[in-house]
Design brief:
Layout: H1 2-15, H2 18-39, H3 49-59, H4 63-96, H5 98-113, H6 116-127, H7 131-155, H8 159-167, H9 172-210, H10 215-224, H11 228-261
Helix pairs in contact: 1-11, 3-11, 4-5, 4-7, 4-9, 4-10, 6-7, 7-9, 9-10, 9-11, 10-11
Amino acid sequence: MQYFKQVFRDMIKYLKSNKFIYSVLGIFLLLGVWQIGSMFMHEIMLATPLQAFKELFKMVQTDIFWFACWITAKRAFAGVLLGGIVGFVFGIFAGLNENVRNLFEPIRWMVMSVSPIIVVGIAMMWFGMGTEMVIFIAAFLLSPIVYVNTIKGIEMVDEKIVDMANVYKFSIFQKLKHIYIPALVGPLSAAMTIVITAGMRMIILAEVLGTNSGIGYEFSFAKTDMNTPQIFAWLIVTLAFVGIAEYLFFKPIENYFLRWKS
């Protein structure tokens, strides 16, 4: 209960800050550039903001819209969670043991270097077309980001503190709780935005190429029908997903752990 009260206080503080005001101004600037661009391009290529929001208003009144959003939200949550857990666990092992890190290095390099399109193709062969494929793609491509930042966080720990913990015979779990995990808050917080935005891109890409449901599928369907306002309406929905995930979910968690660290 205390956590949610603090989240609410943080939200109120943010809404009153200059950062929020300039963010709103930035949104209006973006809409202005979008409107100007639509004046110089054919409507089949770029819908106006008004057309996109009108289409979005019609879409939210349908069951198809809410079903697509629900499916994509579940996939995004599962993919980011699985990728985060895998990257964090392997990052802990690699950060604490240099030999393990060297062992994992070729795998890390391969995963971060392979094209997402290739991963999609392989996932379609392994899992077929559906939710499992989408979750696998997101987790596979996001886990190295968490893995690398976990290692960097462990490397930032002062060796003198570790030596002192050894003198007092701290167990590995005590070291993790009191030394390493607090040190990981900063690097993992910095990676959070990348994970959220990249995760959403991966989910949408996978849905476009290999599913029959979700936001990506509906986007692909609108593109096939050359329904430009609907295409940009789904773009707005995607941006809203990322904004909600980052500022209403992950940001409060980040602030909570930063306070815990201090």
